[in-house]
UniProtKB/TrEMBL annotation:
Enzyme class: hydrolase
The protein, known as: Beta-xylanase
Coiled-coil positions: none
Ranges for domain GH10: 29-338
Organism: Penicillium argentinense
Signal peptide: 1-22
Pathway: Glycan degradation; xylan degradation
Residue stretches making up the CBM1 domain: 369-405
Gene Ontology cellular component terms for the protein in this record: extracellular region
Amino acid sequence: MVQLSRGALALAASILPQFVNGAGLNTAAVAKGQLYFGTATDNPELTDTSYVTQLSNTDDFGQLTPGNSQKWDTIEPSQNTFSYTKGDAIANLAEANGQKLRCHNLVWHSQLPSWVSSGTWTNATLLAAMKNHITNVVTHYKGRCYAWDVVNEALNEDGSYRESIWYTTIGPAYIPIAFATAAAADPDVKLYYNDYNIEYSGSKATGAQNIVKLIQSYGAKIDGVGLQAHFIVGSTPSQSAQASTMAGYTNLGVEVAITELDIRMTLPSTDALLAQQKTDYSNTVAACLATKGCVGVTIWDWTDKYSWVPNTFSGQGAACPWDENYAKKPAYTGILTALGGTAIATTTTTTRSSTSSTSTTTSGSTATGVAQHWAQCGGSGWTGATTCVSGYTCTYFNDYYSQCL
Ligand SMILES: *[C@@H]1O[C@H](CO)[C@@H](O)[C@H](O)[C@H]1NC(C)=O
């Protein structure tokens, strides 16, 4: 055993600021009242020990989502034969780390085994197969999930129902029936409708609101709407647009979460694209933080090394807050700053009642103000306060980011 002196410990802390308790995305999110900041992951990556070390860092990640291993083709590859090994591996990891689990997903048009997608069905037989799947899977994971994405991507871009095997055979009733079946299997887990391009107002967001209302009209339980937020650098909706769209859902009595956030760019990545990506990440996280009822943000994996984007969108990538070598990108700073609050510039106006003159005292212009605990206090391009409020030290992380700790 090596005994470290107090001085050595202080030195270790100062040169390893990333290990300072509270410095990460999840800790900052929880300090602001959110339930978690989390990430998706997938089974093949779990052989990469460096990857797993950061995945398990609860300063940054308080929640995991299995990217693929709870989907229908993995869990029920042939009818009524259930295979939970891969899904359990991620559930077990989350539990070992003390991380929440978002479970994903039960009913979707994609990644279905052929016995479902190419089967010969009647309304009654397909409903029975759907209910059997939901009941088995939700029962298996009962007590282990914070939430289930019960129905995924049921809408076309114009807000009409997607022509999936579910819709064409059962009709829109498959949605409330799926929610009622999940609720019967685990009355405590949060039940979500999850989709993309419902983060800004328009026909599809209206369609998602209509799904909430449809489920409620059947007397079934729906607890949340998941906004996937697979965005493109430079064309993500503004913070206020995202916040007002979220309010459209929470006004119906459900919570919301950002469930699959990533922000891709056309490669190669440049400093300008990375700076815009930082702004874009910050806007989405800030919109969630500003929305009562937005419980947390999940990124769709944390490193570009394992992002789904390059395999799906030709010529695009660099969508995650960490690069393929596990270095933090400016986007990381953008998220952390949005969660920790930027330097507060306060202006105090004093009116002297004894005379008619008015003097203005600026107690915190961005150049001279103090940054609050957790706030950014330095970094390339930073024009805000560089001193911290009493009791905290401006701590260097990297060239892009220093924080009051
Ligand atoms: C299928 O059956 C369910 C449950 O009875 C019903 O709600 C739904 O409308 C039916 N769909 C069709 C297309 O008949």
